[in-house]
Specification:
The chain has 200 residues and is mostly beta strands. It is built from 3 helices and 11 strands. Strand 5 and strand 6 form a beta hairpin. The chain is globular and about 40 Å long. The relative contact order is 0.25.
């Protein structure tokens, strides 16, 4: 099912800026493969543990983008390649969007639908392109992917940004910082599963 859902809150942070050069994009196309939790990641996971309960996340200002994003065959977004796998359901906190990234304040929490419930699997650090001021942001020793267009159907294509998924609660066979996770599943029969990939 295609979900035509755009967060009204995104309108407040939509920023239009020229695209980075292809060389810049290629340089930032992928984060190094990492499979071990560092002390910083362990501390971050502990700080965010309360969000195992999605209701706590909502009370703290995270709002669901509804769709469960799945890439069963992988996808390509400009210079960025997404291996086959899913991302899950994104909950976005626009109050956490700004020019500095804080390990304790991710912009996005990611949940996997499991047996009718939402299970916390990852957090995402996210920055609009213009807020970044022409330089790719970094956190946990990683350069965020991007800049890239907004991901249909959960945000407008004009919402160019950088992002980094960090799989703190569910092992990712391809590494902690890989955008998709083959171990995460979106039920293909669920009404809000979006299994087409991104459209650019």
């Amino acid at each position: 099912m295609h979900v035509s859902f755009v967060l009204p809150a995104l309108a407040a942070v939509l920023l239009f800026a020229p695209s980075a050069s292809s060389a810049q994009q290629a340089k930032q196309a992928g984060a190094p493969l990492a499979t071990k939790m560092t002390p910083e990641l362990i501390a971050t996971k502990a700080a965010l543990e309360k969000y195992q309960d999605p209701i706590v996340a909502v009370r703290d200002g995270f709002f669901s983008t509804v769709a469960c994003i799945d890439f069963p065959h992988g996808a390509v977004d400009g210079p960025i390649t997404y291996p086959p796998g899913a991302m899950g359901v994104h909950l976005l906190n626009t109050a956490n969007i700004g020019p500095k990234l804080d390990p304790a304040k991710p912009q996005v929490l990611i949940y996997e639908p499991v047996a009718g419930k939402l299970k916390l699997v990852a957090a995402e650090w996210f920055m609009p392109e213009q807020v970044a001021g022409g330089k790719a942001p970094e956190i946990f020793g990683q350069t965020l992917y991007g800049p890239m267009a907004g991901h249909a159907p959960i945000m407008p294509a004009e919402f160019r940004h950088y992002d980094l998924h960090v799989w703190l609660w569910k092992d990712n066979p391809r590494g902690i910082f890989t955008s998709t996770n083959s171990a995460v599943k979106c039920d293909p029969k669920a009404p809000y599963t979006h299994a087409e990939g991104m459209h650019h």
